[in-house]
Amino acid sequence: MAIVQDWLPASQENYEKILFWWKLYPLLASFQWITSWYGMGKTSVQSKFNLPGRIAWATMEIPGFTTLLYIMSTLPAQHGIEDLPWQNKVLAGLFVIHYTYRAVIFPIIQPSMSPIHVLVWANAIIFQLCNATCIGSWLAAYGPTTQEAWKAQNWSVVQFSFGLVLFYVGLAANYFSDEELREIRRSELRRQAKLKQQGKTVEKHYEVPQNGLFKYMLYPHYFMEWVEWLGYWVAAGFSCTPARCFLLNEFFAMLPRAVSGGKWYKQKFGEDKIKGKYVIIPGVY
């Protein structure tokens, strides 16, 4: 049963329309270069349009993997596909693994979360729906749906395996980088609680992360997420346009935030505190 006829799940014609516009997302993301404001986290501003961090995060991320699962469970039957190749199922599983952490576990285990502006929240939902529709539709019906079709696009087990390694390396490093940031927040909450007990004024305190990959860069969690989705694209095959679009769209969406964040670190702590650290791309920037 279609939620929105010919759109969710998408007909092939509408899938191609969505994919066409999805390729242009970097143009929209590039508008971040002309503003220093990002409505989430340390560079955001107070606004009556801010939403509670945990609720906003979960509700803007969950539509991604739930949409993909819905498409995977409905679209194949509409095209007479009785069973998808194992490659399609594994790739769908990787997507769900990532977003189970990002959408469900992440907001639960965060010690605290900054408010998220409603415009950021709405944009993230659109991002998730478009991305899940493109990747899910490709996996469910419009990409290779037989072993013969996989072989026809020069696919190999070696390439798939290498992609999986990249994906899991990126996923693990992303998690441990997040955990380092969580530990800083836990320490800050303990410090604030102690000051309150002493009847002292509590002011928000920031520090530069120093452990793990943070020894070498300011935004390893961003970079390793790129590694993760590069691995996904490698595993899916270089002809998988939706996977390539996802990687590029994340790059263009996250790079301006990292650059703005790098400037914030420099202004807040001074160049000496971040000397020797790259912002986001090791050996480059």
Question: Any key phrases for this structure?
Answer:
two-stranded antiparallel ribbon; 285 residues; mainly alpha; 2 strands; globular
3D architecture notes:
This protein is an all-alpha fold and 285 residues long. It has one domain (12-274). Helices cover 66% and strands 1% of the residues. The protein has helices at residues 12-22, 25-29, 53-78, 86-109, 118-142, 147-152, 157-197, 220-236, 241-269, 271-274; strands at 50-51, 116-117. The chain has a two-stranded antiparallel ribbon. Helix 3 packs parallel to helix 5 (118-142) and helix 7 (157-197) packs antiparallel against helix 8 (220-236). The longest helix is centred in the middle third of the chain and has 41 residues, at 157-197. The mean pLDDT is 92. It is a multi-pass membrane protein.
In short:
With 285 residues, the chain is mainly α. The chain contains 10 helices and 2 strands. It has one domain (12-274).
